Known about the structure:
It is elongated and about 105 Å long. The protein has a five-stranded mixed sheet, with no helix packed on it. A four-stranded antiparallel sheet has the order 3-4-5-6, with no helix packed on it. With 193 residues, the chain is α+β, with helices and mostly antiparallel strands. The chain has two domains: 2-113, Neuraminidase (6 Propeller), CATH 2.120.10.80; 129-175. 24% of the residues lie in helices and 26% in strands. It has one helix at residues 131-177; strands at residues 2-6, 9-13, 21-24, 30-34, 48-52, 57-59, 62-64, 75-79, 82-86, 99-103, 109-113.
Amino acid sequence: MIQSTIHGRERIVPAARAVFSTVLGLDGQSVIVFGGDSEPPLSREFALYVLDINKFRWRIPGISGKIPASRSFHRTLVVGNYMVVTFGLGYVREDDNDILLLDISNNDEFAWTTSFVPPPLTSQSPTPQSPTQSSSQSNINTIGIAIGISIGVIGGIALTVGGFFLYKQYKNRKERSTAIPTPGNERINIKYS
């Protein structure tokens, strides 16, 4: 963590890092930064920062739960009240899960957790489909996938066969152009007047 002094006040600035992830906070006024790769490697305490996009101020939020190791080349997204962190590099799988859940519903203190509570259905949420709708859509999707796979397989075979014949034709032309003429095999073009 880098600290700088501005007019007698300390401000927190995250260490330079690469291959980190960001998500927009639930309030729409903050950006949550997690993980990344830096030199020296990031410690667990300094892997998570929040940027207030109105004031452009960084802060390290209060965190509860088992803090996971920082990771890089991972993906994050927001689902309901959770920031979901998936896979990545730089952590020990025996110590941390491949998928992490950070409850970001409380702006003052985030919580690393292992339990997911899905958001309740609201009038804006899509309503569940009846079984007949979902089964007919499933059949349509299955037929579409089967047609797509068939076209892909046939196209792949056609490209392979066509490529093979083009290669053979190219190879035969190359052999004819580099062949040494043998006496007696020349064609004689005689013009009769």
